Amino acid sequence: MVEVQRLASLAVSQVLAGRNLSHILSSFWQHHPGLSPQQRAVIQDLSYGTLRFYGQLQALLEHLLEKPLREQRLRALLLVGLYQLQYTRAAPHAVVDHAVKTAAALNQRPAMGLVNAILRNFLRKRETLLALAAADEVGRYSHPQWWIDKLKAQYPRDYDAILTATNLHPPMTLRVNCRAITKQDYQTLLQNAGIEAEDLGGQALLLKRAVPVKELPGFAEGMVSVQDAAAQLAAPLLDVQPGMRVLDACAAPGGKTTHILELADAELTALDEDAERLRHLEENLRRLKLEARVICGDAANLSAWWDGTPFQRILADVPCSASGVARRHPDIKWLRRESDIAQFTATQRRILDALWQCLDRGGKLLYVTCSVFAEENRLQVDAFLERHHNATLLPLNTQSQLLPDSQHDGFFYALLSKN
Questions:
Q1: Of the listed 250, 320, 358, 370, which one is catalytic?
Q2: Is 296 a catalytic residue?
Q3: Which of 24, 76, 77, 102 sits most deeply, having the most CB atoms within 10 A of its CB?
Protein backbone atom coordinates (compact mmCIF):
# COMPACT_ATOMS: atom_id res chain seq x y z
CA MET A 1 0.00 0.00 0.00
CA VAL A 2 2.92 2.39 0.60
CA GLU A 3 4.00 2.08 -3.06
CA VAL A 4 0.39 2.43 -4.18
CA GLN A 5 -0.14 5.61 -2.15
CA ARG A 6 3.22 6.97 -3.28
CA LEU A 7 2.44 6.56 -6.97
CA ALA A 8 -1.16 7.75 -6.62
CA SER A 9 -0.03 10.91 -4.81
CA LEU A 10 2.67 11.43 -7.45
CA ALA A 11 0.02 11.17 -10.18
CA VAL A 12 -2.25 13.68 -8.42
CA SER A 13 0.58 16.16 -7.85
CA GLN A 14 1.62 15.93 -11.51
CA VAL A 15 -1.93 16.53 -12.73
CA LEU A 16 -2.21 19.58 -10.48
CA ALA A 17 1.05 20.76 -12.05
CA GLY A 18 -0.59 20.55 -15.49
CA ARG A 19 -0.02 17.01 -16.84
CA ASN A 20 -2.58 14.63 -18.36
CA LEU A 21 -3.57 11.76 -16.05
CA SER A 22 -3.75 9.10 -18.77
CA HIS A 23 -0.22 9.95 -19.91
CA ILE A 24 1.03 9.86 -16.31
CA LEU A 25 -0.42 6.42 -15.62
CA SER A 26 0.84 5.02 -18.92
CA SER A 27 4.32 6.18 -17.93
CA PHE A 28 3.95 4.53 -14.52
CA TRP A 29 3.03 1.18 -16.05
CA GLN A 30 6.02 1.43 -18.39
CA HIS A 31 8.53 2.32 -15.68
CA HIS A 32 7.12 0.03 -12.97
CA PRO A 33 6.56 -3.30 -14.78
CA GLY A 34 6.56 -5.18 -11.46
CA LEU A 35 3.21 -3.69 -10.39
CA SER A 36 0.50 -6.34 -10.17
CA PRO A 37 -2.85 -5.86 -11.95
CA GLN A 38 -4.44 -5.29 -8.53
CA GLN A 39 -1.90 -2.59 -7.64
CA ARG A 40 -2.47 -0.86 -10.97
CA ALA A 41 -6.21 -0.94 -10.41
CA VAL A 42 -5.88 0.60 -6.93
CA ILE A 43 -3.44 3.30 -8.13
CA GLN A 44 -5.87 4.18 -10.90
CA ASP A 45 -8.84 4.29 -8.53
CA LEU A 46 -7.03 6.49 -6.02
CA SER A 47 -5.79 8.87 -8.72
CA TYR A 48 -9.13 9.16 -10.50
CA GLY A 49 -11.12 9.33 -7.27
CA THR A 50 -8.95 11.99 -5.66
CA LEU A 51 -9.22 14.18 -8.77
CA ARG A 52 -12.95 13.50 -9.12
CA PHE A 53 -13.53 14.94 -5.62
CA TYR A 54 -10.54 17.28 -5.52
CA GLY A 55 -12.66 20.35 -4.79
CA GLN A 56 -14.17 18.78 -1.70
CA LEU A 57 -10.92 17.14 -0.54
CA GLN A 58 -8.99 20.37 -0.96
CA ALA A 59 -11.60 22.22 1.11
CA LEU A 60 -11.39 19.56 3.83
CA LEU A 61 -7.61 19.81 3.90
CA GLU A 62 -7.66 23.59 4.19
CA HIS A 63 -9.94 23.33 7.24
CA LEU A 64 -7.60 20.75 8.80
CA LEU A 65 -4.34 22.64 8.26
CA GLU A 66 -3.28 25.29 10.73
CA LYS A 67 -0.94 26.94 8.22
CA PRO A 68 -0.37 26.66 4.44
CA LEU A 69 1.39 23.52 3.20
CA ARG A 70 3.97 24.28 0.53
CA GLU A 71 5.23 20.77 -0.23
CA GLN A 72 3.00 19.63 -3.10
CA ARG A 73 3.81 15.92 -2.90
CA LEU A 74 2.85 15.93 0.77
CA ARG A 75 -0.36 17.82 -0.03
CA ALA A 76 -1.20 15.25 -2.69
CA LEU A 77 -0.56 12.41 -0.24
CA LEU A 78 -2.97 13.95 2.27
CA LEU A 79 -5.61 14.38 -0.47
CA VAL A 80 -5.25 10.72 -1.44
CA GLY A 81 -5.52 9.70 2.21
CA LEU A 82 -8.66 11.79 2.69
CA TYR A 83 -10.17 10.23 -0.43
CA GLN A 84 -9.48 6.75 0.92
CA LEU A 85 -11.04 7.57 4.29
CA GLN A 86 -14.15 9.15 2.77
CA TYR A 87 -14.81 7.08 -0.35
CA THR A 88 -13.23 3.64 -0.04
CA ARG A 89 -13.78 0.65 2.19
CA ALA A 90 -10.13 0.48 3.25
CA ALA A 91 -9.68 0.15 7.03
CA PRO A 92 -9.16 3.70 8.40
CA HIS A 93 -6.29 2.69 10.71
CA ALA A 94 -4.49 1.04 7.77
CA VAL A 95 -4.96 4.12 5.57
CA VAL A 96 -3.47 6.39 8.23
CA ASP A 97 -0.62 4.00 9.05
CA HIS A 98 0.37 3.57 5.42
CA ALA A 99 0.12 7.31 4.74
CA VAL A 100 2.57 7.97 7.57
CA LYS A 101 4.97 5.39 6.10
CA THR A 102 4.49 6.87 2.63
CA ALA A 103 5.48 10.29 3.98
CA ALA A 104 8.74 8.72 5.09
CA ALA A 105 9.17 7.15 1.65
CA LEU A 106 8.74 10.64 0.15
CA ASN A 107 11.66 11.89 2.31
CA GLN A 108 9.16 13.78 4.44
CA ARG A 109 10.03 12.24 7.83
CA PRO A 110 9.50 15.51 9.72
CA ALA A 111 5.93 15.54 8.34
CA MET A 112 5.01 12.03 9.52
CA GLY A 113 3.39 13.45 12.67
CA LEU A 114 1.47 16.01 10.61
CA VAL A 115 0.10 13.32 8.28
CA ASN A 116 -0.99 11.23 11.25
CA ALA A 117 -2.66 14.20 12.96
CA ILE A 118 -4.46 15.50 9.85
CA LEU A 119 -5.99 12.16 8.89
CA ARG A 120 -6.98 11.26 12.46
CA ASN A 121 -8.53 14.69 12.98
CA PHE A 122 -10.62 14.14 9.87
CA LEU A 123 -11.92 10.86 11.29
CA ARG A 124 -12.82 12.55 14.57
CA LYS A 125 -14.47 15.62 13.03
CA ARG A 126 -15.74 14.14 9.77
CA GLU A 127 -19.35 15.41 9.79
CA THR A 128 -18.44 18.94 10.85
CA LEU A 129 -15.67 19.14 8.24
CA LEU A 130 -17.89 17.81 5.46
CA ALA A 131 -20.48 20.46 6.27
CA LEU A 132 -17.82 23.19 6.19
CA ALA A 133 -16.55 21.94 2.81
CA ALA A 134 -20.07 21.89 1.36
CA ALA A 135 -20.64 25.51 2.35
CA ASP A 136 -18.45 26.51 -0.61
CA GLU A 137 -19.63 25.65 -4.16
CA VAL A 138 -16.25 24.32 -5.28
CA GLY A 139 -16.18 22.11 -2.18
CA ARG A 140 -19.80 21.04 -2.68
CA TYR A 141 -19.60 20.21 -6.39
CA SER A 142 -15.88 19.48 -6.86
CA HIS A 143 -15.72 21.61 -10.02
CA PRO A 144 -13.87 24.87 -10.69
CA GLN A 145 -15.96 27.95 -9.92
CA TRP A 146 -15.94 29.16 -13.55
CA TRP A 147 -17.36 25.79 -14.66
CA ILE A 148 -20.10 25.93 -12.03
CA ASP A 149 -20.98 29.52 -12.96
CA LYS A 150 -21.17 28.68 -16.67
CA LEU A 151 -23.52 25.74 -16.08
CA LYS A 152 -25.67 27.84 -13.74
CA ALA A 153 -26.08 30.46 -16.45
CA GLN A 154 -26.72 28.01 -19.29
CA TYR A 155 -28.73 25.36 -17.39
CA PRO A 156 -30.48 27.13 -14.49
CA ARG A 157 -32.72 24.09 -13.91
CA ASP A 158 -30.25 21.31 -14.59
CA TYR A 159 -26.85 22.54 -13.40
CA ASP A 160 -27.05 20.68 -10.07
CA ALA A 161 -27.89 17.39 -11.80
CA ILE A 162 -25.12 17.90 -14.38
CA LEU A 163 -22.49 18.59 -11.73
CA THR A 164 -23.66 15.64 -9.64
CA ALA A 165 -23.65 13.25 -12.62
CA THR A 166 -20.16 14.37 -13.60
CA ASN A 167 -18.87 13.12 -10.24
CA LEU A 168 -20.39 9.66 -10.64
CA HIS A 169 -18.50 6.64 -11.93
CA PRO A 170 -19.19 6.49 -15.68
CA PRO A 171 -21.40 3.70 -17.03
CA MET A 172 -19.85 0.89 -19.08
CA THR A 173 -21.81 0.40 -22.28
CA LEU A 174 -21.22 -2.10 -25.06
CA ARG A 175 -21.94 -1.86 -28.77
CA VAL A 176 -22.78 -5.20 -30.34
CA ASN A 177 -21.27 -5.71 -33.79
CA CYS A 178 -24.34 -6.60 -35.83
CA ARG A 179 -22.10 -7.97 -38.60
CA ALA A 180 -20.70 -10.61 -36.26
CA ILE A 181 -23.59 -11.58 -33.95
CA THR A 182 -27.17 -10.60 -33.15
CA LYS A 183 -27.80 -8.53 -30.08
CA GLN A 184 -30.01 -11.27 -28.60
CA ASP A 185 -27.33 -13.91 -29.09
CA TYR A 186 -24.71 -11.68 -27.51
CA GLN A 187 -26.95 -11.05 -24.51
CA THR A 188 -27.08 -14.84 -24.10
CA LEU A 189 -23.27 -14.95 -24.08
CA LEU A 190 -23.24 -12.28 -21.37
CA GLN A 191 -25.77 -14.18 -19.28
CA ASN A 192 -23.72 -17.36 -19.59
CA ALA A 193 -20.68 -15.42 -18.38
CA GLY A 194 -22.62 -14.08 -15.38
CA ILE A 195 -22.61 -10.48 -16.70
CA GLU A 196 -25.87 -8.54 -16.29
CA ALA A 197 -26.81 -5.98 -18.93
CA GLU A 198 -29.69 -3.66 -19.75
CA ASP A 199 -30.86 -3.13 -23.34
CA LEU A 200 -30.71 0.59 -24.23
CA GLY A 201 -31.92 0.19 -27.81
CA GLY A 202 -29.93 0.14 -31.03
CA GLN A 203 -26.77 -1.90 -30.50
CA ALA A 204 -26.26 -0.63 -26.92
CA LEU A 205 -26.10 -2.79 -23.79
CA LEU A 206 -25.50 -1.11 -20.42
CA LEU A 207 -23.61 -3.33 -17.98
CA LYS A 208 -24.92 -3.45 -14.42
CA ARG A 209 -21.30 -3.65 -13.26
CA ALA A 210 -18.16 -2.70 -15.14
CA VAL A 211 -15.83 -5.58 -16.00
CA PRO A 212 -12.34 -5.76 -17.56
CA VAL A 213 -12.53 -5.84 -21.35
CA LYS A 214 -10.76 -9.21 -21.44
CA GLU A 215 -13.74 -10.72 -19.58
CA LEU A 216 -16.21 -9.70 -22.32
CA PRO A 217 -17.23 -12.74 -24.41
CA GLY A 218 -16.03 -12.44 -28.00
CA PHE A 219 -14.27 -9.10 -27.57
CA ALA A 220 -11.03 -10.25 -29.20
CA GLU A 221 -13.06 -11.82 -32.01
CA GLY A 222 -14.78 -8.50 -32.82
CA MET A 223 -18.26 -9.31 -31.53
CA VAL A 224 -18.48 -6.22 -29.36
CA SER A 225 -16.89 -2.85 -28.57
CA VAL A 226 -17.03 -0.55 -25.57
CA GLN A 227 -18.72 2.75 -26.47
CA ASP A 228 -20.90 5.16 -24.52
CA ALA A 229 -24.60 5.06 -25.42
CA ALA A 230 -24.65 8.75 -26.40
CA ALA A 231 -21.66 8.26 -28.69
CA GLN A 232 -23.49 5.36 -30.35
CA LEU A 233 -26.08 7.81 -31.72
CA ALA A 234 -23.62 9.30 -34.22
CA ALA A 235 -23.54 6.53 -36.82
CA PRO A 236 -27.35 6.11 -37.11
CA LEU A 237 -27.87 9.88 -37.24
CA LEU A 238 -25.39 10.20 -40.11
CA ASP A 239 -27.66 7.91 -42.19
CA VAL A 240 -24.93 6.34 -44.33
CA GLN A 241 -26.17 4.27 -47.26
CA PRO A 242 -24.21 1.47 -48.98
CA GLY A 243 -21.62 2.72 -51.46
CA MET A 244 -21.51 6.27 -50.14
CA ARG A 245 -18.25 8.16 -49.91
CA VAL A 246 -17.90 9.03 -46.20
CA LEU A 247 -15.41 11.08 -44.19
CA ASP A 248 -14.92 10.63 -40.46
CA ALA A 249 -12.88 13.70 -39.54
CA CYS A 250 -11.11 13.70 -36.13
CA ALA A 251 -11.77 9.94 -36.20
CA ALA A 252 -9.34 8.38 -33.70
CA PRO A 253 -9.54 6.12 -31.77
CA GLY A 254 -12.25 4.87 -34.11
CA GLY A 255 -15.39 4.13 -32.11
CA LYS A 256 -17.66 6.03 -34.49
CA THR A 257 -15.65 4.99 -37.56
CA THR A 258 -16.16 1.30 -36.87
CA HIS A 259 -19.81 1.79 -35.95
CA ILE A 260 -20.49 3.44 -39.32
CA LEU A 261 -18.84 0.50 -41.10
CA GLU A 262 -20.78 -2.02 -39.02
CA LEU A 263 -24.03 -0.43 -40.23
CA ALA A 264 -23.23 0.15 -43.92
CA ASP A 265 -20.77 -0.89 -46.66
CA ALA A 266 -19.30 2.54 -47.33
CA GLU A 267 -16.14 3.96 -48.86
CA LEU A 268 -14.91 5.50 -45.62
CA THR A 269 -11.92 7.76 -45.01
CA ALA A 270 -10.81 8.07 -41.37
CA LEU A 271 -8.83 11.25 -40.73
CA ASP A 272 -7.01 12.39 -37.60
CA GLU A 273 -3.89 14.44 -36.89
CA ASP A 274 -2.77 12.27 -33.94
CA ALA A 275 -0.64 9.41 -35.30
CA GLU A 276 -0.59 7.51 -32.00
CA ARG A 277 -4.37 7.54 -31.68
CA LEU A 278 -4.67 6.48 -35.32
CA ARG A 279 -2.74 3.32 -34.44
CA HIS A 280 -5.52 2.50 -31.98
CA LEU A 281 -8.07 3.12 -34.75
CA GLU A 282 -6.24 0.69 -37.02
CA GLU A 283 -6.17 -1.90 -34.24
CA ASN A 284 -9.93 -1.53 -33.83
CA LEU A 285 -10.47 -1.95 -37.57
CA ARG A 286 -8.44 -5.17 -37.56
CA ARG A 287 -10.20 -6.55 -34.48
CA LEU A 288 -13.63 -5.87 -36.01
CA LYS A 289 -12.51 -7.07 -39.49
CA LEU A 290 -13.42 -3.75 -41.13
CA GLU A 291 -11.65 -1.64 -43.75
CA ALA A 292 -11.18 2.10 -44.14
CA ARG A 293 -8.69 4.48 -45.70
CA VAL A 294 -6.72 5.96 -42.79
CA ILE A 295 -5.01 9.35 -43.17
CA CYS A 296 -2.97 11.36 -40.65
CA GLY A 297 -3.74 15.03 -41.19
CA ASP A 298 -5.41 18.22 -39.97
CA ALA A 299 -9.09 18.30 -40.97
CA ALA A 300 -8.90 22.07 -41.50
CA ASN A 301 -5.93 21.84 -43.90
CA LEU A 302 -7.64 20.47 -47.02
CA SER A 303 -4.60 20.75 -49.30
CA ALA A 304 -2.73 18.23 -47.17
CA TRP A 305 -5.16 15.33 -47.57
CA TRP A 306 -8.27 15.98 -49.74
CA ASP A 307 -8.23 14.75 -53.34
CA GLY A 308 -11.03 17.11 -54.40
CA THR A 309 -13.75 14.44 -54.68
CA PRO A 310 -16.71 15.41 -52.47
CA PHE A 311 -18.16 13.24 -49.72
CA GLN A 312 -21.86 12.40 -49.39
CA ARG A 313 -21.55 12.13 -45.60
CA ILE A 314 -19.15 13.79 -43.16
CA LEU A 315 -18.83 13.16 -39.43
CA ALA A 316 -17.22 16.14 -37.70
CA ASP A 317 -16.51 14.94 -34.16
CA VAL A 318 -14.50 18.05 -33.38
CA PRO A 319 -11.99 18.78 -30.59
CA CYS A 320 -13.79 20.28 -27.61
CA SER A 321 -13.62 20.95 -23.88
CA ALA A 322 -14.80 17.35 -23.18
CA SER A 323 -16.99 18.81 -20.43
CA GLY A 324 -19.61 16.12 -21.16
CA VAL A 325 -17.19 13.26 -20.44
CA ALA A 326 -15.29 14.74 -17.49
CA ARG A 327 -16.35 11.86 -15.23
CA ARG A 328 -14.26 9.58 -17.46
CA HIS A 329 -11.34 12.02 -17.29
CA PRO A 330 -11.67 13.91 -13.98
CA ASP A 331 -8.33 15.64 -14.50
CA ILE A 332 -10.07 17.67 -17.23
CA LYS A 333 -11.95 19.64 -14.58
CA TRP A 334 -8.72 20.95 -13.09
CA LEU A 335 -6.64 21.23 -16.28
CA ARG A 336 -9.18 23.22 -18.29
CA ARG A 337 -9.29 27.00 -18.06
CA GLU A 338 -12.25 29.18 -19.00
CA SER A 339 -10.08 30.81 -21.67
CA ASP A 340 -9.67 27.39 -23.35
CA ILE A 341 -13.29 27.50 -24.53
CA ALA A 342 -12.57 30.35 -26.96
CA GLN A 343 -9.62 28.40 -28.39
CA PHE A 344 -11.78 25.31 -28.89
CA THR A 345 -14.55 27.28 -30.59
CA ALA A 346 -12.03 28.87 -32.98
CA THR A 347 -10.69 25.41 -33.90
CA GLN A 348 -14.22 24.07 -34.35
CA ARG A 349 -15.15 26.95 -36.63
CA ARG A 350 -12.02 26.39 -38.73
CA ILE A 351 -12.74 22.67 -39.13
CA LEU A 352 -16.43 23.18 -39.91
CA ASP A 353 -15.76 25.79 -42.59
CA ALA A 354 -13.10 23.58 -44.20
CA LEU A 355 -15.15 20.37 -44.15
CA TRP A 356 -18.18 22.14 -45.62
CA GLN A 357 -16.15 22.59 -48.81
CA CYS A 358 -15.68 18.80 -49.01
CA LEU A 359 -19.41 17.99 -48.73
CA ASP A 360 -21.35 17.14 -51.88
CA ARG A 361 -24.55 18.99 -52.74
CA GLY A 362 -27.42 17.22 -51.01
CA GLY A 363 -24.94 15.65 -48.59
CA LYS A 364 -25.12 15.67 -44.81
CA LEU A 365 -22.59 16.72 -42.17
CA LEU A 366 -23.06 15.63 -38.56
CA TYR A 367 -21.46 18.03 -36.09
CA VAL A 368 -20.60 16.34 -32.78
CA THR A 369 -19.00 17.36 -29.50
CA CYS A 370 -18.73 15.68 -26.11
CA SER A 371 -19.34 19.06 -24.47
CA VAL A 372 -22.20 20.59 -22.51
CA PHE A 373 -21.13 24.21 -23.05
CA ALA A 374 -23.36 26.23 -25.39
CA GLU A 375 -20.44 28.10 -27.00
CA GLU A 376 -19.19 24.84 -28.52
CA ASN A 377 -22.63 23.53 -29.42
CA ARG A 378 -25.81 25.48 -30.13
CA LEU A 379 -24.05 28.83 -30.48
CA GLN A 380 -21.39 27.35 -32.76
CA VAL A 381 -24.05 25.88 -35.06
CA ASP A 382 -26.07 29.12 -35.08
CA ALA A 383 -22.98 31.05 -36.16
CA PHE A 384 -22.23 28.46 -38.85
CA LEU A 385 -25.73 28.79 -40.30
CA GLU A 386 -25.32 32.57 -40.46
CA ARG A 387 -22.06 32.17 -42.40
CA HIS A 388 -23.30 29.48 -44.78
CA HIS A 389 -26.66 30.21 -46.39
CA ASN A 390 -26.53 26.94 -48.33
CA ALA A 391 -26.80 24.98 -45.06
CA THR A 392 -29.99 23.68 -43.46
CA LEU A 393 -30.30 22.32 -39.93
CA LEU A 394 -32.19 19.03 -40.09
CA PRO A 395 -34.45 17.68 -37.32
CA LEU A 396 -33.13 14.78 -35.22
CA ASN A 397 -34.96 11.83 -33.70
CA THR A 398 -33.23 12.60 -30.40
CA GLN A 399 -32.33 15.65 -28.33
CA SER A 400 -29.54 17.78 -29.76
CA GLN A 401 -27.99 18.30 -26.33
CA LEU A 402 -27.68 15.18 -24.21
CA LEU A 403 -26.67 15.81 -20.61
CA PRO A 404 -24.67 13.28 -18.59
CA ASP A 405 -26.79 10.89 -16.53
CA SER A 406 -26.74 7.30 -15.27
CA GLN A 407 -27.02 5.88 -18.80
CA HIS A 408 -24.81 8.07 -20.98
CA ASP A 409 -22.33 10.93 -21.19
CA GLY A 410 -22.97 14.49 -22.34
CA PHE A 411 -22.97 14.91 -26.14
CA PHE A 412 -24.21 17.42 -28.69
CA TYR A 413 -25.46 16.64 -32.21
CA ALA A 414 -26.41 18.85 -35.14
CA LEU A 415 -27.17 17.45 -38.60
CA LEU A 416 -26.59 19.86 -41.48
CA SER A 417 -27.53 19.38 -45.12
CA LYS A 418 -25.96 21.20 -48.08
CA ASN A 419 -28.55 22.82 -50.34
A1: 370
A2: no
A3: 77
